[in-house]
Design brief:
It is a single chain. This protein has about 260 residues and is of the alpha/beta class. It contains 8 helices and 9 strands. The strands form 3 sheets. A 5-stranded parallel β-sheet has the order 2-1-3-4-5, with helices on both faces. The protein has a two-stranded antiparallel ribbon with strand order 6-9.
Amino acid sequence: MKTAVFFYTGTGNSLWLARRLARASGGTDILSLNSGKTIEAAAGADAVGLAFPVHMWGVPRRIVNFVSTLPAGDKRYYFALAANAGQVSETLVQLERLLAARGIKLSAGFEFVLPSNYIPWSGAEAPEKQKVRFAAAEEKIQRAAAFISGRARGPVEKGSLWEKILLSGLCYPWCYRRVPGMDKAFFADPRCDGCGLCARICPAGNVELEGGRPSWKNRCEQCLACIQFCPREAIQFGKRTADFTRYRNPEVSAADLLG
């Protein structure tokens, strides 16, 4: 049996999950949706996984688009790993419905609470707290790997009823429509040296250098790779982020996302 895991990530948590699953289960190919991999890259795999962050309490646009390209009625074993900061809400249920619309069964869906990268709200958590989150996720990924390796089937994980109603039911649809234009809050401060990493690391191709300065083109996915990986911490989102500590998964480098 062979497994293929497609990951989408801004700052590395979903790649970390994919790597941990591969380490625990073996026989696993890790494929980047950041780099535009398609389902054809999973030829020969009898199981297909999606590892991704929860965005605005729901499925990220890139995953929605990827699912729309899947072969209708695909009978392979599908599973999902959803990285979140504590409120998975109905994300995996949403994904289950998206796949069902393509005639595909989501056989397993696990949520993992990992350090948040959503710097518009706050900076990185203290390293000690991050370690606690990673340790708990390490333990859970072992259980998930055994479940997936056995091609077991079960209900996807989800949050509370209030999360379903308020976060996934009301906030997610409102935010989803507005995400591409949310990049209007990005800007580069005087520390920017025009290195261009922000443009190269953006999976949406939303950042372009104009006169040696980054410019955002209204097709943002809110992955936040541009701001979190800026080597000079010169990219800001609104007025507060200059004072916030950046977050990147400690085991994932910019080169990992560019490769």
